[in-house]
């Protein structure tokens, strides 16, 4: 049994190659846990319709690729443990394969199944990271408290990422187990094609529906990821990355690889291999190095999530530092709907709501505003990002939020961005604010309509 999660590709997938070599039959499954869609006390839902659409495009694309190898992707919605429990009882697989998961919610069913089925072999590998655990110069428990320390250790000791090698997709796959009815008679588990109609998605998606940050649409699937990667390195953008990466908008100011890296249609090794080829053709400079630098941040946060477990989601973070933060509904609604007094924040939130995409600088600015100006519980922001971001990645999202909230890996104990200064630096002409209507909803200097005693706050009228 091969359980796909955030590794939705066939290329550069060592675990898949291993399963293809070791098994006589393989059942491919993807399970959507309702817990990861349902709301909680912070958000009405943890997954927006736009994110689901992107995920669905990705699953369809994976299914098409599997079909070319006479295989099928099966999909189920439900508690992973319950679904797999039934399937393991029924099919008695010798082994179950799954990409390593870094956060507790995703790890939990795997651990439960391991203890329930001691005679089944559970095989997992880090297929979403640059380094395997044994290539790291430290154990996960000894991960340094700051990124800079981690980067220095990696750059001194770990194998160089200059000559990254991409593994080919398996040329063939073992057939599905005979017990699985291809027509999908299992109520919980159906081939992806059958689910498509049930969920109301069309088999082809109108390209104009896809969110765009560049002239290429952000479309789900391994082929779309490969096209995007190729298109990026056909430009000279990588040679200027360090100077442009902080821009709020614009064609290839940063790589925009994150949506595909997050769901595993693209591996970091594929990015590094394409970068290596680019450097051999056009030369290396500080900008090309900086792409690796940012990928190391991603790597760091993955290990950070494993090391810190549930602390990733706690108000006091990994520091246990006492912090305040309220869940004041009116302020949160203003932040979400782009009606704060800060046009730059509003523009960024409007962009995020409309597209599911936001630059790194935009994320830092709105996160800082939620924490420092609006004084809200940072987890409300993190959950809202989880709902909206097409590139949502549990480790990068929660790790970055903790960093800005001062309860994470930041040696400076948090970041408070001066919003006026940020606007002068990154949107001096106001183009971004105009494009995303940041002025339209701005509510003036007074954020709240009532004070602490619930009295209406009157706005002084200038005569
Ligand atoms: C509050 C907040 C929440 C975030 N949530 C997420 C998230 O859910 N998913 C996500 O992938 N990134 C997240 N990031 C990190 C970063 O903003 C995005 O990775 C980046 O904007 C993606 O655009 P890009 O692919 O053009 O990045 P580039 O600048 O081109 O960087 C290349 C790659 O490096 C990695 N990377 C870059 N910056 C970071 C970073 N700070 N932390 C971790 N990895 C990084 C990404 O995989 C990215 O695709 C968050 C940042 C902040 C401040």
Automatic annotation (TrEMBL):
Photolyase/cryptochrome alpha/beta domain location: 1-130
Physiological role: May have a photoreceptor function.
Record protein name field: Cryptochrome DASH
SUPFAM superfamilies registered for this protein in UniProt: Cryptochrome/photolyase FAD-binding domain, Cryptochrome/photolyase, N-terminal domain
UniProt KW Flavoprotein keyword: yes
Note on cofactor: Binds 1 FAD per subunit. Binds 1 5,10-methenyltetrahydrofolate (MTHF) per subunit.
Cofactor entry: FAD; (6R)-5,10-methylene-5,6,7,8-tetrahydrofolate
Annotated region described as Disordered, given as residue ranges: 164-185
Name of one Pfam family that matches: FAD_binding_7
Keyword hit for Flavoprotein: yes
Alphabetical UniProt keywords: Chromophore, FAD, Flavoprotein
Domain of life: Bacteria
Family: Belongs to the DNA photolyase class-1 family.
């Amino acid at each position: 049994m091969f359980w796909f999660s955030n590794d939705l590709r066939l290329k550069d997938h060592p675990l898949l190659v291993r399963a293809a070599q070791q098994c006589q039959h393989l059942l491919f499954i993807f399970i959507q846990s309702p817990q990861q869609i349902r709301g909680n006390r912070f958000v009405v839902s943890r997954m927006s319709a736009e994110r689901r659409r992107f995920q669905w495009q990705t699953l369809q694309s994976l299914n098409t690729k599997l079909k070319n190898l006479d295989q099928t992707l099966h999909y189920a919605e439900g508690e992973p443990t319950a679904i797999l429990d039934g399937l393991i009882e029924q099919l008695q697989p010798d082994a179950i394969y799954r990409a390593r998961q870094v956060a507790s919610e995703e790890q939990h069913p795997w651990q439960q199944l391991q203890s329930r089925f001691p005679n089944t072999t559970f095989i997992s590998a880090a297929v979403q990271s640059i380094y395997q655990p044994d290539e790291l110069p430290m154990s996960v428990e000894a991960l340094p408290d700051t990124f800079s320390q981690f980067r220095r250790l990696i750059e001194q000791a770990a194998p160089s990422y200059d000559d990254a090698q991409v593994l080919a997709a398996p040329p063939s796959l073992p057939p599905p187990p005979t017990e699985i009815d291809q027509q999908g008679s299992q109520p919980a588990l159906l081939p992806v094609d059958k689910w498509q109609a049930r969920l109301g998605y069309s088999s082809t998606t109108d390209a104009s529906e896809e969110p765009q940050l560049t002239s290429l649409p952000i479309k789900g699937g391994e082929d779309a990821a490969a096209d995007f990667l190729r298109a990026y390195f056909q430009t000279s953008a990588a040679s200027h990355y360090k100077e442009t990466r902080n821009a709020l908008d614009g064609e290839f100011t940063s790589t925009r690889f994150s949506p595909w890296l997050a769901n595993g249609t693209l591996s970091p090794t594929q990015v590094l291999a394409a970068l290596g080829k680019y450097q051999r053709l056009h030369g290396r400079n500080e900008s090309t190095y900086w792409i690796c630098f940012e990928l190391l941040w991603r790597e760091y946060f993955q290990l950070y999530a494993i090391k810190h477990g549930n602390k990733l989601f706690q108000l006091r973070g990994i520091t246990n530092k006492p912090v305040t933060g309220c869940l004041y509904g009116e302020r949160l609604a203003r932040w979400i709907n782009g009606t704060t007094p800060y046009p730059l924040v509003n523009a960024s939130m409007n962009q995020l709501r409309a597209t599911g995409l936001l630059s790194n600088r935009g994320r830092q600015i709105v996160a800082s505003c939620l924490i420092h100006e609006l004084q809200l519980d940072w987890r409300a922001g993190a959950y809202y990002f989880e709902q909206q971001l097409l590139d949502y990645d549990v480790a990068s999202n929660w790790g970055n939020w903790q960093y800005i909230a001062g309860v994470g890996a930041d040696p400076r104990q948090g970041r408070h961005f001066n919003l006026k200064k940020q606007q002068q630096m990154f949107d001096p002409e106001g183009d971004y604010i105009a494009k995303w209507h940041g002025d339209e909803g701005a509510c003036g200097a007074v954020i709240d309509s009532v004070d602490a005693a619930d009295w209406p706050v009157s706005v002084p009228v200038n005569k």
